[in-house]
């Protein structure tokens, strides 16, 4: 892929602790993913929310750039909490080692 990500939280929304940064604070896909992860963790759904469901949601929310998938797509069956959050991830991690 050769396209740039679509900038997000750019001027005038580029303020951190009251200071204007003068640049975009993230890209659309990453911001959508992080904000959705925060929502899932705050709701306590991290142990049951599958990666596939999150990917599908972020795919529909991201409009300014093309969302791509790479790597082992079988990981989409795991829950978000196997990789972030407080779920038991020992068996998942063993598969990577």
Tally of strands: 4
Give the N-terminus to C-terminus distance in angstroms: 28 Å
Task: Categorize the overall geometry.
Answer: flat
Mean pLDDT: 87
Q: Tell me the radius of gyration.
A: 16 Å
Runs in which pLDDT lies below 50 for 5 or more consecutive residues are none
Give the strand order, joined by hyphens, for the main sheet. 1-4
| Continuous helix count | 3
Main β-sheet, in a few words? 2 strands, antiparallel
Order of helices and strands: EEEEHHH
Structural class: mainly alpha
Helix content: 25-40%
Strand percentage lies at 5-15%
Protein model, in words:
The protein has 3 helices and 4 strands. It has 97 residues and is mainly α. The strands form 2 sheets. Strands 1-4 form a two-stranded antiparallel sheet. A two-stranded antiparallel sheet has the order 2-3. The model has no long low-confidence stretch (mean pLDDT 87).
Compose a concise summary of this entry:
The chain has three helices and four strands; from the N terminus they run ββββααα.
Record keyword descriptors for this entry:
97 residues; mainly alpha; two-stranded antiparallel ribbon; 3 helices
Any chance you could write out the topology, listing elements then pairs?
Layout: E1 7-8, E2 15-16, E3 19-20, E4 26-27, H1 28-42, H2 51-61, H3 90-96
Antiparallel strand pairs: 1-4, 2-3
Helix pairs in contact: 1-2
């Amino acid at each position: 892929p050769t396209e740039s990500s679509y900038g997000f939280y750019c001027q005038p929304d580029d303020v951190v602790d009251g200071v204007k940064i003068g640049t975009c604070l993230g890209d659309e896909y990453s911001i959508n993913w992080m904000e959705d992860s925060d929502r899932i963790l705050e709701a306590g759904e991290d142990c049951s929310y599958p990666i596939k469901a999150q990917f599908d949601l972020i795919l529909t929310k991201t409009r300014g750039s093309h969302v791509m998938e790479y790597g082992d797509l079988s990981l989409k069956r795991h829950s978000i909490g196997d990789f972030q959050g407080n779920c038991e991830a020992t068996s998942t991690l063993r598969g990577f080692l």
